[in-house]
Each structure stands twice: as structure tokens, then as C-alpha cells.
Write a structure and sequence with these properties.
About 65% of the residues lie in helices and about 0% in strands. It is an all-alpha fold. α1 (about 10-35) crosses α2 (about 45-70).
Length: about 80
């Protein structure tokens, strides 16, 4: 079993942060697009807002699971070396 050591540097932090910001934007935009059909996005109730947040959270979970296939097996990041 091979082990992987990641040295945490400012560059590693910047890559991780950039990836998180980009994926958060994409997942939130996708969630809004998905919910825009059946929901009036300008007038959301509390529970519809919670549902929209749940859709985004599930998207984040799926991205993290897929990152194990795409990137380092022990990281939820798709960026290499993070």
C-alpha cells in the first residue's frame, strides 16, 4: 500500500481555495437552475430555501466522492497535490 504525503504550502492552499470557490459557485448555480422550474426563485419559503441548500449539499457530496476517482484517493479535492 503506497502512502501519499501532501506538503501544505501557500500554493496548495491557494489551489484548494480556488477549487472550493469554483465548485461552490457551480453547485449553487446548478441547484438554482434545477429548482427554478418548479419554484419561484424570487419568493422562496423557508422550506424551499432549505431544500435548495440540500440540493447544493448533495452536489457537494457527489463531487467529493467523484474526487476520489479523479484526484488523490485520500483527498476530496480534484486539484492535484491537494
Amino acid at each position: 500500500m503506497a502512502t501519499s504525503t501532501v506538503v501544505k504550502t501557500a500554493q496548495t492552499y491557494a489551489k484548494d481555495l480556488a477549487e472550493r470557490v469554483i465548485w461552490t459557485f457551480l453547485l449553487a448555480a446548478g441547484s438554482v437552475a434545477l429548482a427554478a422550474g418548479p419554484v419561484d426563485m424570487l419568493n422562496l419559503s423557508f422550506w424551499k430555501t432549505v431544500g435548495l441548500a440540500g440540493i447544493t449539499a448533495v452536489g457537494s457530496l457527489v463531487k467529493g466522492v467523484l474526487a476520489r476517482v479523479i484526484g488523490d484517493r485520500n483527498s476530496a479535492s480534484t486539484a492535484s497535490g491537494v
